[in-house]
Every structure is written in structure tokens, then in C-alpha cells.
Design brief:
14 strands; five-stranded parallel sheet; single chain; alpha/beta; Rossmann fold; 20 helices; 4 domains; Helicase, Ruva Protein, domain 3
Length: 452
């Protein structure tokens, strides 16, 4: 058990953090502003402090500076709803252990706490937190499509080969990357994630390779980049298709030579990193358009893994609902409810453009907003996809703008559903749809339908 001090002027944030850490069995103390936190600190003697940046009177950076002056070993995690690169750099310079942005994610909080406790040396808490966090990164499903993914993960995880994970947003690319890391000999090393789409192009090189003091405005001290931080472990380049060409060239060199050079630096540093990349883009098209280097693609794409969208593995939806129910009841303090068979069937018929992530959010919404002891089909009709389920339409169809596109999408969804109902027996599906078999074959070709 760890002792945690939370210093934040927002009562809702304090309560939310307290619930998360209380549930994990830690002792939590709350302070409503900077001066109170400074008074409480010596009495509480916390193992980790979660400190808000923006507070009236005395802001978090000043509190951080005073705490670190009193205790140079203090582990302080800064949290902010208005995070900027400059603020993060300043907090790091003043000795912050980590910097989190609001809205706070439970998984990220647990990972950050686990890392801080490892530094503090509380091994028992670390091991328990590690098992809790790993539960969050399970890949759930028994469909043929997901079994193929799991089989490839099991074969590839223990190897050192680079992996390129492709798939739509919300399909679980990060889960797969973490599973590969856990199965690798590097599992005790760091897992460092970089969202290439979220970092401005002018800062991506500094983020990846680090910088030396004075190399650009705001570089107030030397800083290690993600490649160095991942040394001995795994570097996950998420949305790698959004990386600038200049950064791509440097990543290629790092992969070829195993060396990196900080921005503004002269000497190179050797790094031992396994790179796993992910993208929701068609990199072949990006290469053709000149937006992605072909040589880097072949370096990254040693082992390809494609994550199937949820609409192509609908048989996993009941299992995923059960998984999310258990997880939400355990981590979010949401009252558990059963889902009726009709409700599950309704959810299985939706299109899920946001994939597994959208399903998880929908399950949480139904648990919170449904009024009965169990979630029923009528709750799905009223609370999901703006009532689109009432007409039996997959939720994504209602967002289509033109009638022509709607007709094509509806026809594709209808044909695919009938093929699945008939176990891809084209003759039987054509008979039931009262469609000539030759026409059905043409539709299958037109929409690129494949048995999943």
C-alpha cells in the first residue's frame, strides 16, 4: 500500500482520483490548494504526490519547487487541463516525475503510479499494480479474425522483429503493441509510446531523439528523447503515417545504425530498442503520394498485423460486453447490471464506426443511464446512436451525407449480414434474398466482401 497526496482545487478531480486510488487499496490524502498541500506534506509523508498546475493563489509549479526544495527525492506527478510543451518542460526542469493532461485516463494513472512506485522501491505495490494494468490491456475475443491476430502476437512477441500494426481507430492497435511487449524478453524494460499525430511536426524530432540545452527556444536543459527512454525496451510509434518526412529519415537512420543524435547535439548515442509501429492509414497509398518513405516502410513492416474492425467480428460483441461490465464495475465504481439477450442482439446489429472503443463507451453509457435493474433492448433504442437502432439501422448509416452513399452502405451491410447468416453459402443466400446468384457474386466483388 502506498500513501498518496492529491493537491487540486477542483473537488471533482480530487474525488475522482481518490476513488481510483482507494479502490487499489492505497491511503489517499486530499488538499484543496497549494498552501494546504505544503502544510499537509510533512505530516502525510506521501510516497507520490499528484499536483494540479493551475490553482488560484499559488500555482502548482511553485508548490512543486517548494516541495522539491524541502525533499529532493519527492515524486511529484503534475496534472493540467491546459498542458503545453513549455509547461511540461518547466515542470520537468523543476523536478516533476511525470506530466499528465486532463481529462485523466484511469489506465495512464495506474501506469504512472506503478512507475513512480518502482522508483520508490515499493515492490509489493508495483507487482499488484502491474497485474491490474495488464488486465486493462487484454485482447478479448474468440472469432476467427481475432484468433489470427492472437496467433501472430504469440509467435512474434518473443522475437526481436519489428511489427507494423494497421487498422481503423479503436480496433486495439495499442493493446496489441502492449501484448507484444509483455511476451518479449524486454517485458521488464520500458514500454514508451509516441503518438506521432499528436505532436507538432516542428517538435517531433525533439520528442523522439531529445535535445541539448539551447538548441531551440524553450530548450532550457538537456532532455532525453523517446528512443533513449525506451533503451532496453519497446518504442511504440502510434500513427506513424503522420510523421514528417524529415523525422522519417532520422528514424530510418536510427533503425539502421542503432544510434541517435539529440537535436542540437554533435555526438551519437547507441540505443537498444525494439520498434513497434501502428497506423490507420494506407501506407502504400502514402508512399505513392510521396508522403511516406518506402525504405522506412520495409524496415517497419517486417511482421504485419492487421486489426479487424468490430463490424467484421460481431460474434465477439457478447464477450466484449461481459469484459467491459467486469472492468467498469471494478475500476469505475459503476453499479453492475445484466444485459438482456435482446439488448446484446441489438448492439450486435449496429455498425460500430468507432470499433471496440465505441462499444466500451456505449456499455458505460447504458450502465449509467438505463433505469431498470437490467439493460434492455429499449434502452439500446433510446440511448445508442441517437435512436437509430429503432429503425434497425446500423448506427453508422445515419451519419452518411448523400443518398447514393447511403444506398451503397445499406446494400453492403444487408448482403454481408445475409452471407453471414448462411455461413457464406452464396447459393442459399441468393435464394433467400430472391436475387440471381450471378448478381450476388457481382455485389460481393463490388463491395470487396470477404469471409472473415
Amino acid at each position: 500500500m502506498a500513501t498518496i497526496l492529491i493537491i487540486d482545487d477542483e473537488e471533482s478531480i480530487r474525488d475522482a482520483l481518490r476513488q481510483v486510488f482507494d479502490y487499489e487499496g492505497h491511503e489517499v490524502h486530499l488538499s484543496s490548494d497549494g498552501p494546504s498541500g505544503l502544510i499537509d506534506y510533512p505530516d502525510v509523508e506521501p510516497d507520490v504526490i499528484f499536483l494540479d498546475v493551475k490553482m488560484p493563489g499559488m500555482d502548482g509549479l511553485e508548490v512543486l519547487e517548494r516541495i522539491r526544495a524541502e525533499d529532493p527525492d519527492a515524486l511529484v506527478v503534475m496534472i493540467s487541463g491546459h498542458g503545453t510543451i513549455d509547461t511540461a518542460v518547466e515542470a520537468t526542469r523543476k523536478g516533476a516525475f511525470d506530466f499528465l493532461e486532463k481529462p485523466l485516463d484511469t489506465d495512464r494513472l495506474l501506469v504512472t503510479l506503478r512507475n513512480a512506485l518502482r522508483v520508490r522501491g515499493l515492490s509489493e505495490s508495483v507487482e499488484r499494480l502491474k497485474s491490474e494494468v495488464e488486465i486493462h490491456y487484454e485482447i478479448v475475443g474468440s472469432s476467427y479474425a481475432i484468433r489470427q491476430v492472437l496467433e501472430r502476437v504469440e509467435k512474434t512477441g518473443p522475437a526481436e522483429a519489428r511489427v507494423l500494426i494497421s487498422g481503423e481507430n479503436g480496433t486495439g492497435k495499442e493493446l496489441t503493441a502492449r501484448a507484444l511487449h509483455r511476451l518479449s524478453p524486454r517485458s521488464e524494460g520500458p514500454f514508451i509510446e509516441v503518438n506521432c499525430a499528436a505532436i507538432p511536426s516542428e517538435l517531433i524530432e525533439s520528442e523522439l531523439f531529445g535535445h541539448v540545452k539551447g538548441s531551440f527556444t524553450g530548450a532550457v536543459s538537456d532532455r532525453a528523447g523517446k528512443f533513449e527512454q525506451a533503451d532496453g525496451g519497446t518504442l511504440f510509434l502510434d500513427e506513424v503515417g503522420d510523421m514528417s518526412l524529415a523525422a522519417q529519415a532520422k528514424v530510418l537512420r536510427a533503425l539502421e545504425e542503432g544510434k541517435i543524435t539529440r537535436v542540437g547535439g554533435s555526438g551519437s548515442r547507441t540505443v537498444d530498442v525494439r520498434v513497434i509501429a501502428a497506423t490507420n492509414k494506407n501506407l502504400a497509398e502514402a508512399i505513392e503520394a510521396g508522403d511516406f518513405r518506402e525504405d522506412l516502410f520495409y524496415r517497419l513492416n517486417v511482421v504485419p498485423i492487421t486489426m479487424p474492425p468490430l463490424r467484421e467480428r460481431r460474434e465477439d460483441i457478447p464477450m466484449l460486453i461481459t469484459h467491459f461490465l467486469a472492468r467498469l464495475a471494478r475500476t469505475e465504481r459503476v453499479a453492475p447490471k445484466a444485459f438482456s439477450a435482446d439488448a446484446v442482439e441489438r448492439l450486435g446489429g449496429l455498425d460500430w464506426p468507432g470499433n471496440v472503443r465505441e462499444l466500451r463507451n456505449t456499455v458505460e453509457r447504458l450502465l449509467i443511464l438505463s433505469s431498470g435493474a437490467a439493460v434492455e433492448a429499449r434502452d439500446v433504442v433510446q440511448l445508442v446512436s441517437g435512436g437509430g437502432a429503432q429503425e434497425g439501422l446500423p448506427g453508422g448509416l445515419l451519419g452518411i451525407e448523400t443518398f447514393g452513399a447511403f444506398k451503397d452502405a445499406a446494400e453492403r451491410a444487408f448482403i454481408l449480414a445475409k452471407l453471414r447468416e448462411n455461413d457464406w453459402n452464396v447459393s442459399e443466400a441468393a435464394r433467400r434474398m430472391e436475387m440471381p446468384r450471378s448478381n450476388l457474386y457481382k455485389k460481393i466483388e463490388k463491395y470487396g466482401l470477404e469471409r472473415g
